[in-house]
Amino acid sequence: MADQLHDGDARAQPMLEVERLVRRLGPGFTLGPIDLSIGARQIVCLVGHSGCGKSTLLRLIAGIERPDSGTVRLDGKALAGPGVFVEPEKRNIGFVFQDYALFPHLTVKQNILFGLRKRPREEARARVAMLLELTALTAMAGRYPHMLSGGEQQRAALARALAPEPSIVLMDEPFSNLDRDLRERVRHETIALLRRTATTAVIVTHDPEEALSTGDRIVLMKSGQIVQNGTGRDLHDRPADRYAAEFFSTFNRVPGIYRGGALHTALGAFPCRLDLAEGSEALAFIRPQAVCPCMALDGLSGAVRSRSFRGEIEQLELDVEGLTAPLVMRTTQRLNIQDGKLRFRIDPETVLAFTAA
Asked: CATH number for the 2-92+166-247 domain, one of 3.30.750.24, 3.40.50.300, 3.30.70.20, 3.90.79.10?
């Protein structure tokens, strides 16, 4: 329901609109044309491999770079377009850089106060006090950036970005400098703060799990283009192509032949919604967790090549007749395998199909 409400906001009241945006970065790479609409209070993740154009798109929205063509509008106001270019400091956009970019010679309080210089003094002080409390930094208000942990620096940078009450906050890999154990907690706190302040945000990440757990919507990019745009469940469960599928999951790729609306493989026939000619080659994409141990005598069978215990899950590689590569299985069950053989089944509803090319 939350996703539906956010999507409705995006259609009715777009906070950010990007239309046919293009930026040429030398002979080997062009970003765009990009079309993107983000609704008020949405948190959107831009995700993709390094070099796909995520950060460039963020910088174009912020005004740090100029587009070669296309338009950017924020809350209905043109920021970039034919004959229009609003300087970054006049866009009412907050930006949190990957390295946080806090002023090293200013305290936490002074850093947050920096963007409020034009506000009346008492109003600015009250705003800073509120943000210090929201980010749990009140006790550290007098400290300098080098005296803070990575998570505290990130919260201070976010508080500084939120101080002038921007229409949107852009965050470029904000959690990548944190240790893995700290990253999830800081991410959860950051999203909670954005929700409490009803802030529209665009967060760049290259981490699939981070994107799935963070954004109301995910925008997946590749080579300067948007590949797919939707909710996390959309992209994970209904990927638009092989790139989208493999970005968010690992798969067993099993060859097959398309006949009668199904993909026939060495592991059985699976539903196939591809528009293929009869007899065409295609691939069944099977997630390791979709390969499930079973006791049924009519189940599929494989010889265990290897086992790797990983705590909550165990990963096995199975040699299966008709397959040239081992079939990878991941299970939470504690298996007692006596003769090196394992029976298994595959949930056909979880199998994806893509062309072999």
From this structure: 3.40.50.300
